[in-house]
Design goal:
Length: 82
């Protein structure tokens, strides 16, 4: 008898049984709540201001060419002006 109970307990239920519309509604609600809490935390801690400042610095650094390119341009201008 114990082997038949063990077999009955270990048999897999179909996956579709657990994935009902109610399950998806709960999943969506929990995901929305967690996402909203994460966004609130990032806004309250100043995360977006910090990221904006870092991105501005990065764009400023890439706006001007590296020093070796500036030297090459200067050398080419001097060569062309001769």
């Amino acid at each position: 008898m114990s082997s038949s109970l063990a077999r009955a307990r270990t048999t897999a239920r179909p996956a579709a049984h657990a994935l009902t519309p109610a399950f998806y509604c709960k999943l969506i609600g929990i995901s929305f709540g967690v996402g909203a809490c994460m966004e609130l935390f990032m806004v309250k801690t100043g995360f977006y201001e910090k990221v904006t400042a870092i991105e501005a610095e990065r764009r400023e650094a890439f706006a001007e060419p590296p020093a070796w390119i500036a030297r090459l341009k200067d050398e080419r201008e001097k060569k062309d002006s001769r």
